[in-house]
C-alpha cells in the first residue's frame, strides 16, 4: 500500500545541525550477521572438499531443484543463442545497441591501459607490462534482481580487456531462468553458464570443482550470502566492490523541468526500499515544485510502494545557498550517481572530486547511463567513490613491473641497496646486491 | 641452530607426479582463526564507540605503554625531521637516492593515468575523470619487520598521485621506535605519525577518532590482527592486498654465476621461515652447482637458521626440459618476484603473463628492486599476480565516468533505454528516459 504522504526530509545547508542531519541521512551499514557468516564458511568448506557433489546438493536444497549431475546445471553457447533467437526483435536490437555503445566506451578505456617503459642513460630499462587475467567469473542474481543490462556491463569490459574466458553463474530457483539474461550473455561473449547461485557458486568459482573452472576474479552483485562469500574468498581470488543500495544525487539550478527531476529521483527509488534519492538546489521554490511533481506523479508509478518507502525513509530535498555549496556537499557525499542538471555543467565538473558517474546537463538522465550511454553502470556506492572507481577494463587487467639493469646501473645501485639492506639487517639482500658491484 | 642439511626439494617437470608435487610446494593459506576474528571485532567496536579513549587503553595494554593522552602518541613533522638529521649521513643519502628513483618511476606511472574523453558526432561527450584520494593511512609494523624501505614504497606513490595527506601509524612497543623508519617518513612526505598499531590503529584510521582522522584507504603490511582488521573494515575504506609470505622464482639458463643465484635465493629465504625461494633451470649440472653454492655460502650468513628452515620447508630446485617450459611454469606459479637470469631476457618477456615484478638479466638482482630500482616492492604474493598488480599511483586515484548527452543523443538513446528498462520492469527508469525523447 502506498504511504499516504510522500515527503522526503527537507534539509537546509545553513542550519546549525545540518551536518549531523546529513550524517544520519547517509548512514548505511550492511547488517553483519554471524549466523550468515557461519553458514557461508560451512558451504565454502564443503564445496572445497566435495566439489561438484556439494554444489549439486546445495543447489537442490536452496533452489528447490531435482537433479543429480552437473551437466543438468550447465548451459552451453547453443542454449544462450537460442535465448537470443527467441526474445522479441525490439529487445534484441536494443540489447545489441546497448552492447555496441558499452563496447566502444570500454575500448577507449582500454587504450589508456597500455604497457610502457623508459630507458635511463646507462641503459637500464624500467617499465610496466599490462596483461589480461586468464578467466573471470560473473555472478548474476536470479529472481527479481536479475538484469540483462548487468550482464552486458560486467562481461563486456572483461572481454574488451582480452580475458579469454568469462564464466557466468546464475541461480535458477525452481528451474526458472530469465531469457533476457541468457540473451545478454550470448551478446556479451560469455563462454559458459552454470545455473547455480549463492555461496556455493562463489566457492566453486574461487576454488574450482571437477566441472566448474577456478577463476581469477569474481564480479557481480548478489544477496547477503553472496556478498559474505565474496568477502570470505577475497585473496584467494580477486573480487569487485561489495555494493550497497543504489543512490542518486541530483544537483539542479532550478531551471530543469520539475517532472523530469522527480522522475529521475523515482528511477533510483524504485530499485528497492533502501535506495537513496537526494535533490540539492539553491532554489527553494524549485524544491517545492519538485515535491509537487512527486505527489502528482507517484500514483501513476507501477512501483509506487517501493518508491514511497524509499523516499520517505532515505530521500531528501536539500536547500543550499549556491551551487558552490552544492559541489562541497557532493564531495562530502561521494554519490554513486551525480546529475548536474544545471546550465553549463562543464564549469562545475572540475570541482567534483568524488562521484562514481557524473551525468551532465538537463538531457543526461541517469537512466540512460544504466543501459546504453556506454560507461559502466557498476559504480561505487555508499560513499566509496572516495576511493574506488566504476567497473572497467582495468579491473580485468593487472600490471607487472619490468626492471632490466645494465652492468653499470647494477653496480651503482648495488651500493645504495647495500647500505639500506644492512640498515634493515638483511645481509643476504646486501650481498646479493654487492655481487653486482664492479671492482 | 642451523639445520645439518640444507636441501631444497628437487623436482622434475617431466615426472608424472610433478603437477601434484608443485601444488603441494605452493600450497599456502593464512591461518584463519576465529578467536583472532572475535578479538578484532571487539577492538573495532570499542574504537568506534570510545574513540581516542579506546585507542589509548589498547595501546597501553598491548604495547606496554604508560600514557594518558593522544598527544603522547602523536609525532609531528619536527620529530620526523629530527630523526632524519640524526641518522648516519651514508644512510641519509642512500634513503634520498632510493626515494628519488622511486619518485621518478611513479611519476612515469602517473603520466599513464590521466583523464580522457571523446565527443560523438551528435555532440554527446563521454569520458573519465581521474582524481586522487583525499587522505590515506599507512600502517608500518613495529619491531623486527619495521622497514624504512616500506615507508618509501608505500608513501611515495600516494604523494605522486596527489593525495594531500598521508597519515602513518607505527606501534612503539615499550616506547621503542625505529629512527630509520621515521627518517624515511620525513623523506616520503608523511604528514603526521601516530605511534599506535594493531587492530586498534586500523579501526581508528577507518572510522576516525577525535584525534586520528578518518582516511579513504589503508595500506601497508601487518601481523594477523592487522590483516584481519583490514579485511573487516574493507568497504568502509579501501585496503591494499593482504600479503602472504614473500617469494622469488629464479629462471636461469645455467650461465649465471651459481653463487649469485644462491645469494638471490637467500635474499628471499632470509625474510622469514615461510618465505619461498625456487630456482628453475633446464641445466641439471647448474642446479647441482647452485646446491653446492648454497651449502658453501650458508654458514657465512647472519640469518642462516631462517634461510635453512625456509629453503628446507618451501624451497625447490626444478629441472625443466627447456626455457619454454620454464615460462609455462612461471605463469602457473604467478610469482611475486621473477628473475629471468638468462641471455636475451627480452625474448622471453612477452611469454610472461603473470608475475608481480620481472627482473631481467644477470645483473638485475631482486634485492635492487627491494630498495632503489624505482618500481614498487609491494607486490602480489601467493599467486595473486594472476589478478593483482604492484602497489602504484593508480591505487591512490579513482575514476569518475563523465557523460553529457546532447538533446539529439538523449532522444535516440532514450528509445533504447526505454525498451531495456521496460524489459526489466523498471518503469521509472523508462519514463525518465522517455521524457528526453523528442516529439
Automatic annotation (TrEMBL), chains A, B:
Catalysis performed (reactions): L-histidinol + 2 NAD(+) + H2O = L-histidine + 2 NADH + 3 H(+)
Signal peptide: none
Name of the top EC class for this enzyme: oxidoreductase
Gene3D superfamilies recorded: 1.20.5.1300, Nitrogenase molybdenum iron protein domain
Binding site for NAD(+): 139, 200, 223
Binding site for Zn(2+): 268, 271, 370, 429
UniProt keywords, alphabetically: Amino-acid biosynthesis, Histidine biosynthesis, Metal-binding, NAD, Oxidoreductase, Zinc
GO molecular function, a single term: histidinol dehydrogenase activity
Entry cofactors: Zn(2+)
Pathway: Amino-acid biosynthesis; L-histidine biosynthesis; L-histidine from 5-phospho-alpha-D-ribose 1-diphosphate: step 9/9
GO cellular-component term (any): cytosol
Domain of life: Bacteria
Note accompanying the cofactor annotation: Binds 1 zinc ion per subunit.
GO biological process, one term: L-histidine biosynthetic process
Active site (UniProt): 336-337
Annotated substrate binding sites: 246, 268, 271, 337, 370, 424, 429
EC number: 1.1.1.23
Alphabetical list of InterPro entries matching this protein: Ald_DH/histidinol_DH, Histidinol_DH_CS, Histidinol_DH_monofunct, Hstdl_DH
Record function comment: Catalyzes the sequential NAD-dependent oxidations of L-histidinol to L-histidinaldehyde and then to L-histidine.
PANTHER family: HISTIDINE BIOSYNTHESIS TRIFUNCTIONAL PROTEIN, HISTIDINOL DEHYDROGENASE HDH
Family (UniProt): Belongs to the histidinol dehydrogenase family.
NCBIfam families with a match to the protein in the record: hisD
Protein name as annotated: Histidinol dehydrogenase
Amino acid at each position: 500500500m502506498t504511504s499516504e504522504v510522500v515527503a522526503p526530509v527537507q534539509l537546509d545547508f545553513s542550519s546549525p545541525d545540518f551536518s549531523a542531519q546529513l550524517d544520519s541521512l547517509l548512514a548505511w551499514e550492511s547488517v553483519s550477521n554471524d549466523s550468515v557468516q557461519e553458514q557461508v564458511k560451512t558451504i565454502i568448506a564443503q564445496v572445497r572438499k566435495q566439489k561438484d557433489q556439494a554444489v549439486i546438493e546445495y543447489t537442490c536444497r536452496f533452489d528447490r531443484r531435482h537433479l543429480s549431475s552437473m551437466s543438468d546445471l550447465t548451459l552451453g553457447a547453443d542454449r544462450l543463442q537460442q535465448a537470443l533467437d527467441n526474445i522479441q526483435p525490439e529487445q534484441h536490437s536494443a540489447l545489441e545497441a546497448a552492447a555496441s555503445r558499452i563496447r566502444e566506451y570500454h575500448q577507449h578505456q582500454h587504450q589508456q591501459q597500455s604497457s610502457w617503459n623508459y630507458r635511463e642513460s646507462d641503459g637500464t630499462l624500467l617499465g610496466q607490462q599490462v596483461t589480461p587475467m586468464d578467466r573471470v567469473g560473473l555472478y548474476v542474481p536470479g529472481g527479481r534482481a536479475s538484469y540483462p543490462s548487468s550482464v552486458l556491463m560486467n562481461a563486456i569490459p572483461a572481454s574488451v580487456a582480452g580475458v579469454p574466458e568469462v564464466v557466468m553463474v546464475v541461480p535458477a530457483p525452481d528451474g526458472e531462468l530469465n531469457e533476457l539474461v541468457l540473451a545478454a550473455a550470448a551478446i556479451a561473449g560469455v563462454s559458459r553458464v552454470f545455473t547455480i547461485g549463492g555461496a556455493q557458486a562463489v566457492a566453486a568459482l574461487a576454488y574450482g570443482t571437477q566441472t566448474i573452472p577456478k577463476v581469477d576474479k569474481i564480479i557481480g552483485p548478489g544477496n547477503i550470502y553472496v556478498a559474505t562469500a565474496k568477502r570470505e574468498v577475497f585473496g584467494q581470488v580477486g573480487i569487485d566492490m561489495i555494493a550497497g543500495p543504489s543512490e542518486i544525487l541530483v544537483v539542479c539550478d532550478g531551471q530543469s523541468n520539475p517532472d523530469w527531476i522527480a522522475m529521475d529521483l523515482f528511477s533510483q527509488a524504485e530499485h528497492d526500499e533502501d535506495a537513496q534519492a537526494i535533490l540539492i538546489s539553491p532554489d527553494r521554490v524549485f524544491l517545492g515544485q519538485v515535491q509537487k511533481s512527486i505527489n502528482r506523479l507517484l500514483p501513476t508509478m507501477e512501483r509506487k510502494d517501493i518508491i514511497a518507502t524509499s523516499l520517505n525513509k532515505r530521500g531528501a530535498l536539500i536547500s543550499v545557498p549556491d551551487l558552490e555549496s552544492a559541489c562541497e556537499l557532493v564531495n562530502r557525499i561521494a554519490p554513486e550517481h551525480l546529475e548536474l542538471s544545471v546550465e553549463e555543467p562543464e564549469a562545475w565538473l572540475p570541482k567534483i572530486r568524488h562521484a562514481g558517474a557524473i551525468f551532465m546537463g538537463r538531457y543526461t538522465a541517469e537512466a540512460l547511463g544504466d543501459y546504453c550511454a556506454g560507461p559502466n553502470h557498476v559504480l561505487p556506492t555508499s560513499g566509496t567513490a572516495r576511493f574506488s572507481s566504476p567497473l572497467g577494463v582495468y579491473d580485468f587487467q593487472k600490471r607487472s613491473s619490468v626492471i632490466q639493469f645494465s652492468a653499470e646501473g647494477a653496480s651503482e645501485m648495488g651500493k645504495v641497496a647495500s647500505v639500506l639492506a644492512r640498515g634493515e639487517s638483511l645481509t643476504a639482500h646486501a650481498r646479493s646486491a654487492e655481487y653486482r658491484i664492479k671492482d
